[in-house]
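Sample A.
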Amino acid sequence: MVRQGPAPDTLGAMRRLLPFLLILSACGGGEPGPAAPEVGAIETVCSASACVDHPAGWEVEVGETFLAFRHPIDPERIVASVGAVDMATLVETVGGEWPAPPRDAIVAFWELIGGGEDASLDGIETRSDGAIRSEGVLEGLRMWHLLVPGFGRSGVGVEVRAPNGSWEAHADVFLGSLRGR
């Protein structure tokens, strides 16, 4: 006698486990890493060249030419930074010619980070003020970036990295407030 399908005992066990598997799959499958807390109070910090708002609770380091942020929930993976961007160097490093539109600098930036292998650009948006917002994944972390072009080859950039998309509201605070001094 040849049987097809699982044995009757196995089928009964599978039927009993099915509701639990469905519950586990509904609860699991979320994005990796800690979820972002709600954005509460907003604080402002400035370096010599730029100011940016950030949600309260982020640890801040102020340098002469940069701002660095870490979130205490996961300070190695939930980070942000603000600093100068040399758009010409970005474009020329990937074989382009300067002068070029700021959008080309962002495309070059995403090509260069992660050695071009650990990064994927998911979208670029040019804002009405000329700033370029982009987002994607770098080394398994969600990343948001904003470039505010200055004069000539210079600009100011802010980036926020976190383990999952729940941190986008935090990124929006950083990216929505960057301004030169």
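Sample B, a different protein:
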Amino acid sequence: MAEKTILPEKEAYEIADKFALISAQILEFRIEKREPPLSDEDAAELEKYEDSLDALVVLFRNYGIQLIGKKANEATVELRNAVEAGKKTLKQVNTIKQAINIAGALVDLAVAVLSREPKGILNAAQKVMAAIQ
């Protein structure tokens, strides 16, 4: 039988809350006045990521987070690190392209968490870290 890690409810809520904060940061970035302004395409892409994170946050809060597979503990650590790094970087990012890349990578990470597969989480966490660079 596959190894299973169920994050304690408090920790799952903390991760969900961080994703919710990231969604709010994406919203703030999207509506912030800037020169040049966001193109309609960039704004729509950011809004799509924002909406995706909001929906995933609801699932994490309602159903918790559990991982299945050999690297579940490692994936949990990388998940925490990537979410925190993404949240910090989105506060400081100024370029539209980087904001979109980070937002997309964070949505991929949230989807990977939903899949419960540690390998997917590890890969997605690496993409978040790469987008931050």
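Observation for Sample B: The two ends are 38 Å apart (CA to CA).
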